Amino acid sequence: MNRTEFITVTAIILFAAFVLGWFASWLVHRITRPTRASMSELDLMAQQLHEAEEARDQAVARLEEREADLASKLAGAELELQAAMDGLRESRAEVKELRDYIEQKLARR
């Protein structure tokens, strides 16, 4: 085998390797390429995910609004309780004063 034949055989082998690699790449790409059905399914899943995220955001907003409402109601109830406790304390003091007054009047007779 002379030099020219060696170069020719080497070139043919390299070209065959290139063609075989290109064919393998095309075949892998063709096999792994998503189909239209799977693409539409992925689009549907993306849309459902987006809708679920929006629903979650709305639920969180409603929850925060409800929590703020309940916190304000609790604060109002605590103020009313404090006012009732103050009124009860004053009533007890008044009752004690009235009892002392009645006892003093009954003791003088």
Any idea how many domains?
Answer: 2
Structural class: mainly alpha
Rounded Rg:
45 Å
Strand content: under 5%
Low-pLDDT windows of residues: none
Count of helical regions? 2
Distance between the ends: 150 Å
What is the H-and-E element order?
A: HH
Fraction in helix: over 70%
Largest sheet: none
Shape: rod-shaped
The pLDDT mean sits at 93
> How many beta-strand runs?
0
Please tell me about this protein's structure.
With 109 residues, the protein is an all-alpha fold. It folds into two domains: 33 residues; 75 residues. The protein is built from two helices and no strands. The longest helix has 73 residues. It is rod-shaped and about 150 Å long. Keywords: Coiled coil, Membrane, Transmembrane, Transmembrane helix.
What are the defining features of this structure?
mainly alpha; about 0% strand; about 110 residues; 2 domains
What topology emerges from the helices and strands here?
Elements: H1 3-32, H2 36-108
Short description:
The chain folds into 2 domains: 33 residues; 75 residues. It contains 2 helices and no strands.
